[in-house]
């Protein structure tokens, strides 16, 4: 059965993109080259923004409805994209097999964030990098309390497993990556449990 989130996300995503998320996607992917693995591709919103220096994108999306939409987006993409039903915890790539791994609005949802980042390390070539664009933990104790209350109750079932209070940057560093570039910002530009975003690049230590 298609999840409520999978039915809602494409429309929500288009609204977010129209309000500025598209530019964040383009910045996230700028300068990538070679073989890329995208984790949690959703409906394929990133595919149109990969630069021509990318040889191939292997995109994983376990949710069937979103995966079908991603396959349609892959057929229109300016670079070669293959869509797989694999999950973040078991990426369909050999050790040291890709140049970059992309996480975009997905690390809030994976059941095991440390396992997903360990898999990214496994499949990256020496000198490879991850790119991430994620929302996460707020910058005040009061909002963090609200986030944790949401995460413990209604939010994950409604939002495809999303957890608002995860400290994504700390998780990236804990996984053995060195963050080379990081920008924190609110999107939308107000303080809500969902506004605190981080976009960055990290390489294996």
Summary keywords:
single chain; globular; 35% helix; alpha/beta; 7-stranded mixed beta sheet
Short characterization:
By secondary structure, the protein is of the alpha/beta class. The chain is built from 6 helices and 7 strands.
Structure description:
There is one protein chain. The model has no long low-confidence stretch (mean pLDDT 96). The radius of gyration is 16 Å and the shape is globular. Strand 4, helix 3 and strand 5 form a beta-alpha-beta unit. The chain has helices at residues 4-29, 64-76, 113-123, 141-151, 155-158, 168-174, and strands spanning 34-39, 54-60, 80-84, 98-104, 124-135, 177-186, 196-204. It has 6 helices and 7 strands, in the order H-E-E-H-E-E-H-E-H-H-H-E-E. It starts with a helix and ends with a strand.
Structural class: alpha/beta
The number of distinct β-strands equals 7
The main β sheet shows up as: 7 strands, mixed
Estimated radius of gyration: 16 Å
Distance between the termini: 41 Å
What's the order of the H and E elements? HEEHEEHEHHHEE
Percent of residues in helices comes to 25-40%
Residue ranges: pLDDT <50 for 5 or more in a row? none
Mean of pLDDT? 96
- Morphology: globular
* Strand neighbour order, sheet with most strands: 3-2-1-4-5-7-6
Count of helical stretches? 6
* Percent range for β-strand residues: 25-35%
Helices and strands in order:
Elements: H1 4-29, E1 34-39, E2 54-60, H2 64-76, E3 80-84, E4 98-104, H3 113-123, E5 124-135, H4 141-151, H5 155-158, H6 168-174, E6 177-186, E7 196-204
Parallel strand pairs: 1-2, 1-4, 2-3, 4-5
Antiparallel strand pairs: 5-7, 6-7
């Amino acid at each position: 059965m298609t999840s409520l989130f999978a039915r809602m996300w494409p429309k929500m995503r288009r609204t977010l993109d129209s309000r500025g998320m598209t530019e964040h996607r383009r910045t996230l992917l700028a300068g990538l080259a070679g073989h890329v693995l995208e984790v949690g591709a959703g409906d394929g919103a990133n595919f149109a923004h990969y630069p021509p220096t990318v040889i191939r994108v292997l995109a994983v999306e376990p949710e069937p409805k979103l995966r079908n939409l991603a396959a349609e987006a892959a057929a229109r993409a300016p670079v070669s994209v293959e869509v797989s039903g694999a999950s973040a915890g078991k990426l369909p790539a050999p050790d040291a097999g890709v140049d970059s791994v992309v996480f975009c609005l997905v690390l809030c949802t994976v059941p095991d964030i440390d396992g997903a980042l360990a898999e990214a390390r496994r499949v990256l070539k020496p000198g490879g990098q991850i790119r991430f664009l994620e929302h996460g933990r707020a910058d005040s104790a009061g909002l963090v309390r609200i986030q944790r209350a949401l995460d413990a109750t209604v939010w994950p079932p409604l939002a495809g497993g999303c957890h608002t209070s995860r400290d994504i940057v700390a998780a990236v560093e804990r996984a053995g990556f060195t963050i080379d570039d990081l920008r924190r910002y609110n999107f939308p530009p107000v303080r809500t449990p969902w506004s605190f975003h981080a976009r960055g690049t990290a390489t294996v230590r």
